[in-house]
Design a protein that fits this description.
The complex is a heterodimer of chains A (about 475) and B (about 250).
Chain A (H helix, E strand, L loop, with lengths): L11 E5 L6 E7 L4 H13 L4 E4 L15 E4 L6 E5 L4 E5 L4 H8 L4 E2 L11 H7 L6 H4 L6 E7 L5 E5 L4 H7 L8 E8 L1 E2 L4 E9 L2 H11 L5 E6 L11 E8 L8 H4 L2 H4 L4 E2 L3 E2 L3 H5 L5 H16 L1 H4 L2 E5 H5 L17 E9 H18 L5 E7 L12 E9 L5 H17 L3 E2 L9 H23 L8 H7 L2
Parallel strand pairs in A: 2-4, 3-4
Antiparallel strand pairs in A: 1-2, 5-6, 6-10, 7-11, 8-9, 8-10, 12-14, 12-17, 13-14, 13-19, 15-16, 18-20, 18-21, 19-20
Chain B lengths: L6 E5 L4 H12 L3 E6 L2 H14 L5 E5 L8 H12 L4 E4 L14 H29 L3 E5 L12 H21 L5 E7 L19 H14 L3 E4 L2 H11 L2 H4 L5
Parallel strand pairs in B: 1-2, 1-4, 2-3, 4-5, 5-6, 6-7
Helix pairs in contact in B: 1-2, 1-6, 4-5
Chain lengths: ~475, ~250
């Protein structure tokens, strides 16, 4: 315990999951290069500390927090290394954000093939969590579009990995929540687009069953499809929803592609409904962030969707406007208050999904903790070791967390976990804050966990890479 | 399960109020680093706390608070083992009985070493950590004895007055970082320290005191008198002019 073992306290920070409901303290280091990153590994070894890799910190729960660990903040490694605009292949450092990525490519007619609901995660984070988009049913997860990546191992060795060079490691690192090494650069295949616009169509459904029916009908005709679910309505209106579909323009359909592909055409509106500065909108939400208020907001949303002028069943929208719904209201999570929020997302095989989601919504309502946001998507299976996808559907539920409801909310999530597991469902680490080790074991199965352990032993035998999530689920 | 506190350190926890605070925190599922000189007593307190909550960690660390240079490394080691730090309570204190005509420099120095310099060593270190983390609660167990300079035990009263002022200063420094600093001013608590004291006014059990102290800390109180009646005594004491105060025989 000599002073040489002391970590400088000025690196100490409270590090939160994006939802703000879980946090821990860590010593944050922000390397700007691979050389500096190697120095951070040396510091961790010298001080006998674990390392937690963190990008933009957009995982809702504890996937990028590490209690008393070195927090390796990779957001400063954010250079676009190369861009081949003929082939649409880009190589970026891990800290490049989705925003940087699409802004770099769109004017050349390319768009990231998979994006989350916000443009602020880093590409490294997207790899670690193997994120999905509103087109998962069609194009798979982010990892399906990765050509190769470069990874720094905790030994200091630097390796290049592709499907061809090492398929097992490729499929474990992508979605492997930063457990095997630090991915420092990524080569991605972008998607060719012939317009900066998408054709968007909206429907309102009367209940959950109608939502599933609509999906069945529209999925074959959709490039993107996403449903907003009113989780406060019950009885015959349980699961009523608004669904948005978006489709690309074919080559030649947009008469002015150069204009629509301009970055300034993609920008999100500065004002909501043309009136409120969007930076202030979260304050307007404050009085409604309770069960009664949200019931009213949801009702208003459904009513508005049916009005001819506001509802706009068919319209054109830029890629950014359609993709990044979570960025419309900056700081919206502040409306959830000091306790923050958690998101609970489960993925259920198609044959059970409707029944399970209806039960989940009812369970939440019975517990008096209804989700204030519900988002519905369709998925398809993929080949990644820690895949969260199924041949089925997911429902993501946002819960307000307070000191008063925290215990009951975690209990509710555990009960929903039991239901999900009973129907062979899966979970997603980017969203998780409540899984128990037994849930983790049950959803992944012994073979996957054994494979994980043998890869961990090979690439990080001293267990240097840890997060609060890995500690919670695996006690690594 | 509360977001508020998950990890705490109690300095001076092998008996009395400190021990009772450990048990109070254990009831709330908080993991605690327990610090005192007496290793056997620490083990006993840790075991008792473990019996209250098997979900939390209770880590005993033998340490003499006058070994100031050990503090930075020890604090970092404890926080590493605990997994964080949200609350620190400095409870170490000595109150040797001093005769009415006694002036013993070594005794007075030992009082200040433990009651004040030990607090500086621990709470400065915690303050730096909390300031960077922009979060945390610091609690100092001062005393009603520090309100004015009475005839008995000048050094002890000085130490408690100094501790109260130090805590106020910390509070004013750290408020902008969201860090709470709480001054606790107990009256007479039924512990070893007070067993030889003739004054038993409003005697309170350590358990009840601990409950009030933890509640005040959770609330982020500025100054908490335990029990609350001492607040009124304090107000009166401050109003008394010196020529009357010096005639009081306590």
């Amino acid at each position: 315990m000599g002073s040489s073992k002391l970590l400088p306290v000025d690196h100490l920070r409270k590090v939160e999951g994006w939802g703000g409901a879980v946090s821990s303290f860590g010593y944050v280091y922000s390397p700007k290069s691979t050389e500096e990153l190697l120095e951070v590994i040396a510091i961790a070894r010298k001080h006998d500390r674990k390392i937690t890799i963190r990008g933009a910190g957009r995982s809702y729960g504890d996937a990028a927090t590490g209690a008393e660990n070195i927090i390796l903040d990779t957001s400063g490694m954010n250079t676009v290394l190369s861009w081949n605009l003929e082939k649409g292949v880009i190589t970026v450092e891990c800290g490049v954000t989705i925003e940087q990525l699409w802004k770099h490519c769109i004017e050349d007619g390319w768009w990231p093939p998979v994006v989350p609901g916000t443009m602020y995660p880093t590409v490294g984070g997207c790899i670690g969590m193997n994120i999905h988009g509103k087109n998962n049913f069609k194009v798979g997860p982010f990892g399906d579009h990765v050509v190769s990546f470069t990874m720094v191992l905790v030994s200091g060795e630097i390796i290049n990995v592709s499907r061809e060079s090492d398929a097992e490691l490729f499929h474990a690192v992508i979605g492997g929540f930063g457990m095997f090494g630090i991915v420092v650069s990524i080569t991605l295949q972008m998607k060719k687009v012939y317009s900066g616009l998408l054709r968007v169509q909206a429907w309102t459904t009367t209940d959950l069953h109608a939502l599933f029916d609509l999906y069945k009908e529209q999925i074959p005709k959709s490039d993107y499809l996403v449903g907003w679910v009113d989780c406060l309505s019950s009885g015959k209106k349980l699961g009523r929803s608004i669904v948005h579909q978006a489709n690309y323009f074919a080559e030649g359909e947009d008469p002015t592609p150069t204009a629509t592909l301009r970055i300034d055409r993609q920008s999100l509106p500065e004002k909501i409904l043309g009136v409120f500065p969007k930076s202030l909108v979260w304050m307007l939400l404050l009085p409604f962030m309770n069960n009664v208020g949200m019931k009213f907001i949801n009702w208003l949303r459904i009513v508005a969707s049916k009005l001819p002028l506001l509802g706009k069943p068919q319209y054109e929208q830029s890629h950014a406007e359609f993709a990044f719904l979570l960025d419309y209201v900056p700081g919206w999570k502040k409306a959830y208050g000091d306790g923050g929020l958690i998101q609970y997302q489960s993925f259920i095989p198609k044959e059970h999904a409707e029944k399970v989601f209806a039960s989940q919504i009812e369970m939440c309502q019975r517990a008096g903790i209804p989700p204030y946001l519900g988002v519905f998507k369709q998925h398809k299976p993929d080949a990644f070791l820690f895949t969260h996808a199924v041949d089925g559907f997911s429902l993501a539920l946002d819960f307000k967390v307070t000191d008063a409801n925290r215990g009951n909310l975690w209990k509710l999530c555990s009960e929903m976990n039991d239901l999900v597991l009973k129907h062979n469902g899966r979970f997603y680490f980017a969203k998780d804050a409540t899984l128990r080790p037994s849930d983790f074991q049950a959803f992944l199965g012994d073979d996957v966990i054994q494979k994980f352990k043998s890869l961990k032993e090979k690439y990080d035998p001293s267990g240097l890479l840890q997060t609060d999530l890995s500690q919670r689920l695996m006690r690594l | 399960m509360s977001k508020k506190w998950k990890h705490a350190i109690i300095v001076g926890a092998s008996g009395g109020i400190g021990e009772a605070i450990v048990y109070e925190l254990a009831k709330q599922g908080i993991s605690v680093g327990i610090i005192a000189r007496r290793g056997d007593e620490l083990q006993r307190v840790a075991a008792n706390a473990g019996a209250i909550s098997n979900q939390s960690k209770f880590l005993p660390f033998v340490h003499d608070v006058t070994h100031y240079s050990e503090v930075p490394a020890l604090l970092q080691e404890i926080t590493k083992q605990l997994g964080g730090l949200d609350l620190i309570i400095y409870n170490s204190g000595i109150m040797p009985l001093v005769g009415k005509t006694e002036y013993n420099f070594e005794t007075d120095k030992s009082i200040l070493n433990t009651n004040i310099l030990g607090a500086f060593a621990w709470l400065n270190e915690a303050a730096m950590r909390f300031q960077n983390a922009r979060s945390g609660t610091i609690v100092g167990i001062s005393s009603i004895a520090g309100e004015r300079g009475r005839k008995g035990m000048p050094a002890y009263m000085t130490s408690k007055a100094a501790l109260s002022t130090y805590l106020e200063s910390l509070r004013n420094r750290l408020a902008q970082y969201g860090v709470k600093v709480v001054t606790i001013k107990p009256g007479v608590i039924d512990t070893n320290m007070s067993k030889d004291s003739p004054n038993k006014l409003w005697l309170m059990s350590p358990e009840k005191a601990a409950k009030e102290i933890v509640a005040a800390a959770a609330k982020g109180s500025v100054v908490k008198y335990v029990p609350f009646q001492w607040r009124f005594v304090s107000m009166v004491l401050h109003l008394l002019p010196s020529f009357i105060f010096r005639r009081l025989n306590f």
